[in-house]
Design a protein that fits this description.
By secondary structure, the chain is mainly α. It contains nine helices and no strands.
């Protein structure tokens, strides 16, 4: 739960979707799809393979960081300014869902968290096989994300819908947060 309530790239994307009007559900659906993908990958053992091959993890980190950087720069350059009667012509539901999937599905922190945490809550002597336990834990995590991300997305929509100045500030702040997260991930890849 602490991972879910900590603001990060997923929160910034949910806020951005809330500011765009009717995009919260597809954006959050995309984010959740990325978490489900990470769950399946880790449960299938591919996560361990990626963790054991630093180059593969580095490639995933660089690609994910580049995508977050691109999203953050776009949010900073073109902050959302909702209006009461706004219909968002700039993006379809599918586009919002795909972007959300990429935000969470390419986030190496999600894979690392799953690799570090999920195995600690499994028991080889339990009635369910370990991969099934990991899937169950991943589903609990994804359900928690659904609740929090929907609250964040719809909350930003309600609170900021009538405050265009505050909406621009929050959108720019979310963009800066994505840029900082992307740069921090990239800095972690530099030889130390």
């Amino acid at each position: 739960m602490l991972f879910v309530i900590t603001p990060g790239a997923d929160w910034a994307y949910a806020i951005s979707a809330g500011l765009k009007g009717r995009a919260v559900i597809p954006a959050v659906g995309g984010l959740l799809s990325g978490h489900l993908l990470a769950t399946v990958i880790v449960a299938a053992g591919v996560g361990t393979l990626i963790a054991n091959h630093p180059f593969a993890l580095s490639v995933l980190t660089v690609v994910g960081s580049g995508y977050l950087l691109w999203l953050g720069i776009n949010m900073l350059a073109r902050p959302a300014t909702p209006q009461a009667d706004q219909i968002d012509p700039s993006g379809s539901w599918q586009r919002w869902a795909i972007k959300g999937f990429c935000v969470s599905g390419l986030n190496p922190k999600v894979f690392l968290l799953f690799l570090a945490l999920l195995p600690q809550f499994t028991d080889v002597a339990a009635a369910w096989p370990v991969p099934v336990q990991m899937i169950a834990l991943g589903l609990v995590h994804t359900a928690s994300c659904a609740v929090i991300y929907l609250l964040v997305g719809f909350g930003s929509q309600v609170v900021l819908q009538t405050r265009p100045g505050a909406a621009r500030f929050v959108s720019r702040f979310s963009g800066v947060a994505m840029i900082i997260i992307a740069l921090a991930l990239l800095a972690g890849q530099m030889p130390g």
